[in-house]
Amino acid sequence: MKHLPDRTFHPLRRWQTLRQLRRTPLPASVLFICHGNICRSPYAAFKFSAMLPAVLRERIMVSSAGFVGSNRPSPDEARTAAAARGIVLEGHRSQLITLDGVYDMQLIVVMDRAQELRIRHGFPRSRNMIIVLGDLDPQRIDTRTVRDPVMQSIDVFEGSYTRIDRCLIQLVDALSYGAVLENNPA
Q1: Which helix (H) or strand (E) holds 54?
Q2: What spatial distance separates the first Cα and last Cα of the chain, rounded to whole Å?
Q3: What is the rounded CA–CA span in Å between residue 96 and residue 166?
Q4: CA-to-CA distance for 4 and 6, rounded, in angstroms?
Q5: How far is CA 89 from CA 45, 130, 171, in A?
Q6: What does pTM read for this prediction?
Q7: Residues with Cβ < 8 Å from 121, sequence gap 6 or more?
Q8: % pLDDT > 70, the chain
Q9: For the chain, what is the largest distance between any 2 Cα atoms, rounded to a whole number of angstroms?
Q10: Helices then strands, each counted (H, E), the chain
Q11: Which residues contact 184 (CB under 8 A, 6 or more apart)?
């Protein structure tokens, strides 16, 4: 029962989010946010950058941040799971969200609804587009939240990263679609 609203409204949220992304000009900057910026958001940022077509990679600045603790490395499980997917988190150090960081970003991608609300209420003057990454999942879902794997087994990291990958494919496709329309107006 707890996740019934997420399951029920997922197709509509997915459609609305993809529609919004396709109709919005290509963002010059994308910020991925999770709680601690050591597991989900750094992986998502690096993977998103790697997935972008070269022409878009040159046009979009990608970064990540979190709500707690700066200068912390990603845990061993995060580095191992990411490396198996071709992403290196070895040199990553967590960054805290800053006023400038939020206001300078055109697209903010969060891992759950609570983070979305925290950004909207903590930075009320921000006009950035904020999306919950899980809303892009092409599969049926139980929850909008991309599970936080911190202090969990490698299997949980792999599950979270698999879901992030599915959602990022949708994000890259939507942004690429918008960029094509931008460059080829009807």
Answers
A1: helix 54-57
A2: 46
A3: 26
A4: 5
A5: 11, 25, 21
A6: 0.94
A7: none
A8: 94
A9: 50
A10: 7, 4
A11: none
Q: What's the token pair of residue 113?
A: 């609804």
Q: Helices 154-183 & 40-51, crossing angle to 10 degrees?
A: 40
Dig out the tokens for 46 from the structure. Answer: 């690096």
Q: For residue 126, what are the contacts with CB-CB under 8 A and spacing of at least 6?
A: 102, 103, 119, 120
Would strands 61-66 and 129-132 be described as parallel, antiparallel, or unpaired? unpaired
What does the pLDDT look like over 4-61, one tens digit per residue?
889 999 999 999 999 999 999 999 999 999 999 999 999 999 999 999 999 999 999 9
Domain boundaries, the chain: 4-181
Fold observed for domain 4-181: Rossmann fold (3.40.50)
SS3 call for 103: helix
Hey, which bits of the chain come out as E strands? Answer: 29-34, 61-66, 107-110, 129-132
Residues composing the chain: 186
